[in-house]
Amino acid sequence: MPIVLYFSRKHENMMNGEIRSVDMGNTAMIANKIAAQLNMDAIEITPINEYPENYQETVDCAKTEKAKQARPKYKLGTFDLSKFKEIIIGYPNWCGTYPMVIASFLEDYDLSGKILYPFCTHEGSALGTSMDDLRESCLNFTIKQGLAIHGSKVAKADRAVMHWISHIG
What we know:
CATH superfamily: Flavodoxin domain
CATH topology: Rossmann fold
Number of strands: 9
Distance between the termini: 10 Å
CATH architecture: 3-Layer(aba) Sandwich
Shape: globular
Order of helices and strands: EEEHEHEEHEHEEH
Helix content: 25-40%
CATH class: Alpha Beta
Largest sheet: 7 strands, mixed
Radius of gyration: 15 Å
């Protein structure tokens, strides 16, 4: 049985070219759909310093973090990762790849021998370069087929999630 880990951001989000305020981030919605299908909990990777509520300020912050290759600190629920061979990991596509808080997680945990199933939410750039970036950042695990869900379509993504889960094993 895999573990579902994710980073998501609520507040202002871009959806269909418009900024909208949301109570739950798009990636959190998909993580919860995946976890429900697998009858388990999804565990959130929560930055210690929360990103701004304002969409453009968050975009600027994400660009700065990526340029500096920052490694934001985060909180994560208590669990024993060694008990899991498969990790389903989710994130929004920021600046064409995964956010730097995900890079922090990848560096902090030994994923040697693990199988990683990435999923992301986006507003048009799908998985971006995140699959290649994952391969470059962690050479000792296997990356399988990823899932990209358009952020404005997360509420109606149940079939896409079920289809993806049926193909990941």
